[in-house]
Amino acid sequence: MRTTVGIIGAGPAGLLLARLLHNAGIDSVVLESRDRAYVEHRQRAGILEQGTVDVLRAAGAGERMDREGLPHDGIELRYDRKRHRVDFPALTDGRSVMVYAQTEVCKDLIALQLKDGGPLLFEAEALAVEGADTGTPRVRFRYEGREDVLECEYVVGCDGFWGIARKAIPAEPTKVFERAYPFAWLGILADVPPSHDELVYARHDRGFALLSMRSPSVSRLYLQVPEGTDAGSWDDEEIWDELERRFETDDDWTLERGPITQKSVTPMRSYVHEPMRHGRLFLAGDAAHIVPPTGAKGLNLAVGDVVTFARALTHQKETGSAERLDAYSETCLRRVWQAERFSYDMTSLLHRAPDATPFEDRMQLARLERIAGSRAAETDLAEGYTGFPFG
Fold it and tell me: FAD-binding domain spans which residues (predicted)?
């Protein structure tokens, strides 16, 4: 099998890249180790930055998002029983975000790819990337019980942190930057309408809490818990009681309870792999970088990566110049590090470390008061949350 771009992984990054290349007249093949049902029901991110929304619309994948997604013009910060709303459009010249689950993005892109895109092979396990430093890289993969080879001009690894693409990059001159946090998120899905019409980020002495949503009838909520927590160790009433404590305010706001349909624990870490390219192998999304979920940046960073690659390859096709492809890693990493910085700031602002001192507690409250009282500080948060420009 032969194609121009071999794409490993059919998450939102790989699927969107295939769509962008198709629209540019560049052929590709997508290899995904899981089956279609798994990809379409894998619960992940749910906040789309303004730039991601614009890209999906331009790619022809925005119709259902615009019909069913939930536009959000701000978030609420809670601390010390106070409430402060950050108004995104007023601070960012009209930018906002969209609540639309990653599962739905994948469903939309899969439908488009199967309708008029290139081959999308489910249950096709990529085994190795070979010849990345040559002009003809290859992906060995297993499909329908036998091994095959996908011959490419370029390979893009969108196969996540545990995938095989990054392993094909030599140890030298690789640099890895990472940080593990001493806490995690206990997340739930609940069949109850959200108790607030925008996301609520709460800093509390007992730990962080987040009120989010998946739809007008399904709530998504999170609690900061110790690292290594077993989701099954919390019963439903304990979860609701703790959420109520951490969202407490001085007004009459109440948290609505409902049946919990899913529980999971998400570890918190930051990770960046430099460079994001070796020869004709390019890394995108979690294959190259991970952010703690506090800043809602993971999916959006992946979108930025594949947009950068698609634009660079289209530029080469139209002009013959490889300048933008050669700058891929540097271009992406500028945005990646800004998102890492923003996610780190949000995490350290709102989470209470296990060994936090009274001084550190007061510093968090002082930072929150600064955001609430300074348009400049509030604008910095709003610009980071709604998204940094694509390179």
Answer: 2-343
Count Cβ neighbours within 10 Å for each residue of 57-82 and write b for 16 or more, e otherwise. Answer: eebebbeebeeebbebbbbbbbbeee
Element (H, E) at 97: strand 97-99
Tokens 């970088």, located at residue: 289
pLDDT in tens, 46-63: 899 999 999 999 999 999
User: What's the average model confidence in pLDDT over 33-55?
Assistant: 91
3-state secondary structure of 182: strand
Q: Is 201 noted as a catalytic residue in this protein?
A: yes
Q: Mind listing the pLDDT tens digit for each residue in 284-316?
A: 999 999 999 999 999 999 999 999 999 999 999
275 upstream amide cis, omega within 30 of 0 = yes
Candidates 22, 72, 273, 351; catalytic one: 72
As a whole number of angstroms, the distance between CA 203 and CA 347 comes to 10
Other C-beta atoms closer than 10 Å to the C-beta of 222 total 23
To the query of whether residue 289 is one of the catalytic residues in this protein, the response is no
Nearest to 77 by CA among 213, 221, 247, 193: 247
Quick: pLDDT tens for 130-150.
999 999 999 999 999 999 999
